[in-house]
Design a protein that fits this description.
two-stranded antiparallel sheet, 10 helices, 4-stranded parallel beta sheet, alpha/beta
């Protein structure tokens, strides 16, 4: 009987105690609390959340020279969850380049923060109810073979699962381009011209709505906005129903 009570006591203690798991970032065994994204307290507090938006166009939390010199955008606005500092670069590198796909859960949950910012903007600017869908920036076949997955698609599907919105493929990448992070702004714009094409495979899932919709385009990092703008341009030009395009990126 005493061993049975000890067993029950251990169960109760484990339920009441914080979970001890390996932190996804520092990989140390620690107590994890709910809402910390699978990270220990120290790593969680290092996340540079964008809580105050300064640039209403791209969602940057500081002065934005890119949007000031941008002549036109095809997306209404974009919001990001975090600043792209050194800690976030390391986190993305582990996921995107070193293939730690467990982190897609963390990225998807973090994107909810950016999504809620857009929802708040809409609530204060318009009471009109519209349909919402999520899509994502596609990668080339070469990049898919290198990594084995499209990080933007995985983030989009994790976000869609959390906010209960459909995730629909609407874009293809027609040609491979070199990594954009090493290029100047003008080079990015030239390089991305005519790269994206409209994909009609799942279009019926939108057309059946028969009304205006908002399309959220998900990507990992917003740098100059060139990728987001090119994707939004294709959707604006090809969609046969009224659409509003918004960007959702993990980092800015």
């Amino acid at each position: 009987m005493s061993s049975w009570w000890r067993h029950i006591g251990n169960i109760i203690f484990s339920l009441l105690s914080p979970r001890r798991e390996v932190c996804l970032l520092c990989k140390q065994l620690t107590s994890l609390e709910r809402g910390q994204l699978g990270l220990c307290y120290t790593c969680y507090t290092r996340i540079p959340w964008i809580r105050k938006v300064i640039c209403l166009s791209c969602g940057r939390g500081e002065y934005c020279p890119d949007c000031r010199r941008k002549p036109h955008t095809y997306f209404a606005k974009s919001r990001s969850a975090v600043r792209y500092d050194e800690t976030m670069k390391e986190l993305l590198a582990r996921y995107k380049y070193r293939g730690d796909e467990r982190l897609k859960v963390v990225f998807g949950q973090m994107l909810v923060h950016a999504f809620q910012q857009l929802r708040l903007d809409r609530a204060t600017s318009s009471a009109r109810q519209v349909r919402e869908v999520i899509t994502y920036v596609p990668v080339s076949e070469q990049r898919m073979q290198e990594r084995g997955f499209n990080q933007a698609e995985q983030m989009a599907r994790e976000l869609g699962r959390r906010v209960e919105l459909p995730v629909i493929r609407l874009l293809n990448r027609s040609k491979h381009t070199a990594k954009q992070s090493f290029k100047k702004r003008s080079e990015r714009i030239d390089d991305l011209a005519h790269v994206f094409e409209f994909d009609t495979t799942e279009l019926g899932k939108i057309i059946e709505y028969g009304e205006a919709i908002i399309i959220y385009i998900v990507d990992d990092v917003y740098t100059t906005g060139s990728t987001m703008n090119q994707c939004a341009m294709v959707l604006k030009e090809e969609m046969s129903i009224p659409v509003e395009i918004c960007g959702l990126t993990w980092a800015r």
